[in-house]
Design goal:
Elements: E1 2-5, E2 15-34, E3 40-60, E4 65-71, H1 94-106, E5 111-118, H2 128-143, H3 150-158, E6 173-177, E7 181-184, E8 191-196, H4 203-208, H5 219-228, H6 232-238, E9 240-241, H7 244-250, H8 252-263, E10 270-271, E11 278-282, H9 285-297, E12 299-300, E13 303-304, E14 308-313
Parallel strand pairs: 2-9, 4-5
Antiparallel strand pairs: 1-2, 2-3, 3-5, 3-6, 6-7, 8-11, 8-14, 10-11, 12-13
Helix pairs in contact: 1-2, 2-3, 5-6, 7-8
Length: 318
């Protein structure tokens, strides 16, 4: 949802908009092989969820992309200090790169002020950086009065990050290729619990340890069909993430978190993306809240063991 506003108090500010940038979950993630371009061939069923960052975007007459990052939601709480991992505000941030790419492609002769409120933990496999990039493409297109279609913006996003096109789909998607080829699917709004260890993971490091397995080809389609028809028991048996074992090897906290999910009553908890966040699906909010409460109660040496626990629902994205 984008809210478009105009500024009456500052003649230098031309237009402004705010947009939510949702996190995502990988309900399945198969790594099918290594590509000639260095990327991996994947097949993944992905869904946006209600956990989100917020971007406020304002066009300015001066050239340049100015990004300010602050932490919000659970990440603003002292108990979640370990999740406030470094989020750059320079050109290494996908938000800045995406806005620069759009400006170059469109020949825009304006700048952009962006305030990013981070509520999605970084290094967790939740797609926050890619979602933020997709959101700024959409918001900047409107702030600069380009009003380009989503397909054109997604094509720009694909040159920056493989997951970015997914966030323009507006709901569940089977992603293939290196992740940029998307096929929308209908997934009911199940609930889920997400939990994050204090330690993040490097996507490149996790993929480097992954052994491709072509036998998982087609799992995303079967899983999407089971979910769309409400066959949750069958769907749970199809949940799969080829990156889970490498993530367990690199980060012992993932192993412990998955075990704690099971002890908390979750059925088939799973790593999302390259981790380190894990999640469990549920049918109801009360079931999700019960699992989340047990995870939040887990402590180690008087410290909260899992500093980021979120109850979310599958959403329709932007």
């Amino acid at each position: 949802m984008v809210a478009q506003t105009t500024s009456s108090g500052d003649q230098h500010m031309l237009s402004a908009s705010s947009i939510f940038a949702p996190a995502k979950l990988n309900l399945s993630l198969a790594v099918l092989g290594k590509r000639a371009d260095g990327f991996h061939e994947i097949e993944s069923l992905m869904v946006p969820v209600t956990l989100h960052d917020t971007l406020s975007v304002r066009a300015t007459p001066a050239l340049g992309i100015n990004l300010r990052v602050i932490f919000g939601g659970r990440l603003a709480h002292p108990s979640a200090a370990a999740l406030r991992r470094d989020v750059p505000s320079d050109a290494s941030n996908l938000v800045v790169r995406a806005a620069q790419a759009l400006a170059a492609e469109a020949g825009v002769e304006q700048g952009l002020d962006v305030e990013l409120v981070k509520a999605i933990p970084s290094g967790a496999g939740l797609g926050g950086g890619s979602s933020d990039a997709a959101a700024v493409l959409l918001a900047a297109s409107r702030a600069w009065k380009l009003n380009w279609p989503r397909e054109r913006l997604a094509a720009i996003g694909a040159t920056i990050g493989s997951d970015i096109p997914f966030f323009f789909a507006g709901g569940g998607t089977i992603a293939s290729g290196r992740g940029e080829q998307i096929q929308p699917v209908t997934i009911p709004p199940f609930w889920a619990v997400i939990a994050c260890p204090a330690v993040g993971l490097s996507t490149a490091a996790v993929y480097a340890r992954c052994a491709p397995d072509v036998s998982q080809h087609g799992t995303a389609t079967r899983l999407a069909q089971a979910l769309s028809q409400g066959r949750l028991s069958e769907a749970l048996s199809l949940l799969h993430n080829a990156l889970e074992q490498p993530a367990r090897e690199l980060c012992p906290e993932v192993e412990r978190l998955l075990a704690d999910f099971t002890r908390a009553g979750a059925v088939r908890p799973l790593l999302t993306g390259s981790g380190s966040a894990c999640f469990a699906m549920t049918r109801t909010f009360m079931e999700a809240r019960h699992i989340a409460a047990r995870l939040e109660a887990a402590e180690s040496q008087q410290q909260r063991l899992w500093p980021g626990v979120f109850v979310v629902r599958f959403s329709g994205g932007y």
